[in-house]
């Protein structure tokens, strides 16, 4: 089924730049008859692509990416985060009211985080979270579910994806530096903790500055830091 | 009181006490009319063509499954061992890593050892709670299957 039809056209365009308004039409060969015993492959259209009626439309300008078997999406740069179900983000508690915290994650609205979403919390045993604390939580509809702990600088969304990619160079570079831990939110916020305040600040600054660097520039910078030049 | 000139409303005619006098035919007619009215009021989608064009296309809003992004908490060089444990649990597994996981348990007790230990344990616990006669029967069986009854049984230390 994938040798002809719309998916073949899409596969050809992988790696090319597409703009909003580009369309791909479902062909007759793309339909799956229910009497077929062959296992239909699950097609996924990811961020930047949307299906309207019988066409697949590009919504953002960027590069078309592909993952086997039939997942396509548009890779583009963004600064503004849009809440997406299932993603984990770092938010700041702005208020407590009723049974929920109001949390700011950089979106257009505040999110609600129930007291009971914390580990070990019950109605009597309220979680020990104050206004101004940081939470790391996951979206359930537009509400957050579990959250863990509590600091952050902001980076671009592209850097977030590079930090969390499966075999990330930046992560392996960071690993060579010194022991530390990170919490990366899909909303572009990163929280860093290391054994000293100075080290923490170094890592935070490194992350912010290496966003626009090439791999070589970044590795040079990291090397300088390791040697204690900064 | 309804005279011959007064027409009765439909609703009135539909009431239970009025239906008792009617015969089966008229009853059926009334029921059908009602059903028709009700089904007319139901809304339905008038789109037969779209159904045939349904491929299994799922719309995904997040980059996370597309790029196989990892879990958001990361720890380096053992800075936070709990986070490192969470990382091994929650990260999408590499294909090379998976095979090594199951066999590599040198410090822990492996599954086979557990199974062997349980086998002997079940036997000895069963003996403990068995009545005297059953115990005698069990011992008889053991002796018949087992070792030389002449040999003196000394205490055997478990090989740990």
TrEMBL record, chain A:
One of its GO terms (biological process) is CUT catabolic process. GO terms for cellular component: cytoplasmic exosome (RNase complex); nuclear exosome (RNase complex); nucleolus. Residues 154-198 form the K Homology domain. The lineage of its organism: Eukaryota, Metazoa, Chordata, Craniata, Vertebrata. The keyword Hydrolase does not apply. One of its GO terms (molecular function) is RNA binding. This is Ribosomal RNA-processing protein 40. Residues 32-70 form the Exosome complex component RRP40 N-terminal domain. Pfam families: KH_6, RRP40_N_mamm, RRP40_S1. CDD domains: KH-I_Rrp40, S1_Rrp40. Keywords: Cytoplasm, Exosome, Nucleus, RNA-binding, rRNA processing. It is found in: Cytoplasm; Nucleus, Nucleolus. Belongs to the RRP40 family. Its main location: cytoplasm. It comes from the Eukaryota.
From TrEMBL, chain B:
InterPro entries: MPP6 (IPR019324). Residues 145-160 have a biased composition (Basic and acidic residues). Residues 133-160 are annotated as: Disordered. It comes from the Eukaryota. GO terms for biological process: maturation of 5.8S rRNA. PANTHER family: M-PHASE PHOSPHOPROTEIN 6. This is M-phase phosphoprotein 6.
């Amino acid at each position: 089924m994938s040798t002809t039809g719309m998916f073949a056209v899409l596969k050809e365009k992988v790696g090319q730049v597409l703009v909003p308004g580009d369309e791909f039409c479902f062909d007759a060969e793309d339909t799956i008859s229910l009497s077929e015993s062959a296992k239909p492959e699950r097609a996924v259209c990811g961020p930047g692509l949307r299906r309207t009626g019988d066409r697949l439309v590009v919504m953002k300008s960027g590069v078309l990416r592909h993952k086997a078997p039939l997942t396509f999406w548009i890779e583009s740069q963004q600064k503004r985060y849009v809440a997406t179900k299932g993603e984990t983000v770092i938010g700041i508690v702005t208020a407590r009211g009723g049974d929920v915290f109001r949390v700011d994650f950089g979106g257009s609205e505040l999110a609600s985080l129930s007291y009971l979403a914390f580990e070990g919390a019950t109605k009597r045993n309220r979680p020990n979270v104050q206004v101004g604390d940081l939470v790391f939580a996951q979206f359930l509809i537009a509400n957050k579910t579990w959250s863990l702990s509590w600091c952050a600088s902001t980076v671009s969304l592209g850097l977030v994806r590079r930090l969390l990619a499966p075999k990330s160079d930046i992560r392996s570079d960071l690993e060579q530096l010194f022991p530390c831990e990170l919490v990366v939110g899909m909303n572009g916020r990163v929280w860093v903790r290391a054994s000293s305040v100075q080290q923490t600040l170094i890592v935070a600054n490194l992350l912010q500055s290496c966003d626009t660097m090439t791999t070589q520039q970044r590795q040079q910078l990291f090397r300088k830091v390791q040697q204690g030049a900064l | 009181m309804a005279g011959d000139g007064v027409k009765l409303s439909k609703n009135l005619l539909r009431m239970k006490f009025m239906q008792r006098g009617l015969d089966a035919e008229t009853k059926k007619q009334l029921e059908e009319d009602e059903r028709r009215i009700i089904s007319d009021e139901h809304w339905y989608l008038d789109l037969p063509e779209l159904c045939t064009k349904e491929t299994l296309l799922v719309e995904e809003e997040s980059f996370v499954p597309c790029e196989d992004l990892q879990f958001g908490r990361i720890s380096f060089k053992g800075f936070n061992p709990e986070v490192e444990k969470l990382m091994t649990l929650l990260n999408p597994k590499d294909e090379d890593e998976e095979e090594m996981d199951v066999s590599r348990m040198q410090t822990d007790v492996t599954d086979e050892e557990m199974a062997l230990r349980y086998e002997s344990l079940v036997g000895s616990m069963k003996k403990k709670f068995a009545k005297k006669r059953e115990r005698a029967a069990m011992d008889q069986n053991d002796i018949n299957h087992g070792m030389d009854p002449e040999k003196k049984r000394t205490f055997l230390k478990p090989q740990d």
